[in-house]
Specification:
The protein has 445 residues and is mostly helical. The chain has 22 helices and no strands. It has helices at 33-54, 58-65, 67-74, 78-96, 99-106, 108-125, 131-160, 165-193, 198-203, 205-213, 241-244, 258-287, 292-304, 306-318, 324-343, 349-359, 362-372, 377-395, 397-409, 413-421, 423-433, 439-444. It starts with 32 loop residues before the first helix and ends with a helix.
Length: 445
């Protein structure tokens, strides 16, 4: 692929350096182009991470902002709409578990590149597929791309930036929150400006996904599991043992780790809250008498809170031996926000949106803990796939159940009581996942 990364030119041999906790500098070719190639590769990865993160939620929040119009246009019932809001975690659970295997076969960059292409295609097709079934199928295509990218982002961060996991996770999470909030805020006014058709308002987000394909294209041939600034990972099946310098690392029995299970359940419960919020929050405010445009702005406020906090929380989490206090603080904000929505949804709408926005920052915290609870890149890949796939599987019933309860009870009191109650176990398992342990130690015990 690039000089200095795949050995196309003979490198200058240097004596082995002792391990210091930071990835050693890449070997430089005789003409110095290896360093330049490595620098550009790192820049491309940073750009790719940011653009990919921007595209991991607009497919969901743009739909949440126009859910009432989509329901009317496709003739959906409340239960069917609940099923639609459950499709994201279902796809994340089903397709996310395949990400590590695909990454070993094709390389993480190639899989993320394909994921961005799938998002683009799904967003282009779904508004014009015709009928609920076609809409769901095209949505699943986009969500498949999101699922594999979700799992591989922590892997790519750990691999290319092993000494900056907190700051790079923060950057990725901040971009993800920005994309989420912009889609929530801009979809309704953009739809009105483009003629008022919900199909147009959903289609435009395909352009942003298409741009995210570009930075990964020069990296698709990179199939190792160590970045150009990092050491060769012997867990990669494409690296000979002689080159790796030690035997291939065994696959972890990740299900034997209590921390892995705690992190998976924590991930599932925070995902439940997040997808209920993204799918139903605008509708909650609209049913309380808030205008559609303002309801979209309130959802955007909830999402935009993750922009600054998603950068701060991972950096703070990496400096603490135990992340339990952060888990409890975020959970308390969630309880207060759901209580406010229950008692006075319209009167205190902005305050509840802010509180739930803080609570939803459990997502970047969970991603950070994935990187902290494993010592190796291979361990992070396994833990990320297990925690996210299992977590999203756990979260599937939540949005569907909210839709069923909303339709059967005729209001939001019962669904909001359920959402508030789920914050308690989220805090409990989050404290357990935040303990200073690694899955490698627990899986081998």
């Amino acid at each position: 692929m690039m000089v200095g990364m795949n050995g196309e030119q003979a490198p200058i041999k240097t004596p082995p350096q002792p391990t210091t906790g930071r990835a050693p500098a890449a070997v430089t070719s005789a003409d110095g182009t290896g360093t330049a190639a490595r620098t550009w590769a790192v820049r491309l990865v940073v750009v790719g991470i940011v653009l990919s993160a921007l595209n991991l939620r607009p497919a969901i929040t743009s739909l949440g902002a126009l859910l009432e119009e989509v329901r009317g246009g496709l003739g959906m019932s409340g239960t069917a709409a609940g099923l639609l809001t459950s499709v994201p975690p279902l796809c994340f659970a089903v397709f996310g578990v395949t990400a590590p295997r695909l990454a070993r076969r094709f390389g993480p960059a190639a899989v993320v590149c394909a994921g961005m292409a799938a998002i683009t295609a799904g967003l282009l097709i779904r508004p014009h597929a015709g009928g609920t079934a076609g809409f769901l199928a095209a949505s699943a295509l986009a969500l498949m791309g999101i699922a594999v990218s979700n799992v591989l982002m922590p892997v790519i961060v750990k691999r290319w930036f092993p000494d900056r996991v907190g700051s790079m996770t923060g950057l990725y999470s901040m971009a993800l929150a920005l994309g989420t909030s912009v889609a929530a805020a801009a979809t309704v006014p953009m739809t009105e400006a483009l003629g008022g058709r919900w199909q147009t308002g959903l289609t435009v987000w395909a352009a942003l996904a298409a741009v995210a394909v570009l930075p990964w294209l020069p990296l698709v041939r990179d199939r190792g599991t160590a970045g150009p600034a990092g050491p060769v990972d012997p867990a990669s099946p494409r690296v000979p043992q002689a080159r790796a310098g030690r035997p291939q690392a065994p696959t972890l029995r990740i299900t034997r780790s209590r921390t892995a299970w705690a992190l998976a359940v924590f991930f599932g419960l925070q995902a439940t809250a997040a997808y209920i919020t993204m799918g139903w929050m605008a509708q909650i405010f609209r049913d309380a008498g808030v205008p559609a445009g303002t309801a979209g702005l309130l959802l955007a406020v909830t999402m935009v809170m993750g922009v600054p906090l998603a950068f701060v929380i991972p950096r703070l989490a990496t400096r603490l031996p135990n992340q339990g206090p952060i888990v409890l603080a975020l959970g308390a904000c969630g309880l207060a926000g759901y209580t406010g929505l229950y008692l006075a949804p319209a009167a205190g709408a902005w305050a509840w949106a802010l509180l739930l926005g803080v609570s939803n920052c459990a997502f970047p915290l969970a991603l950070t803990m994935v990187g902290m609870r494993a010592r190796t890149g291979a361990g992070v890949a396994q833990l990320s796939a297990f925690a996210q796939s299992t977590g999203y599987l756990i979260s599937i019933p939540g949005p569907l159940l909210v839709g069923v309860l909303y339709q059967s009870s005729g209001g939001w009191s019962v669904p909001l009581a359920l959402m508030g109650a789920l914050m308690v176990p989220q805090m409990v398992v989050g404290v357990l996942a935040g303990r200073n342990r690694t899955v490698e130690d627990e899986a081998s015990a």
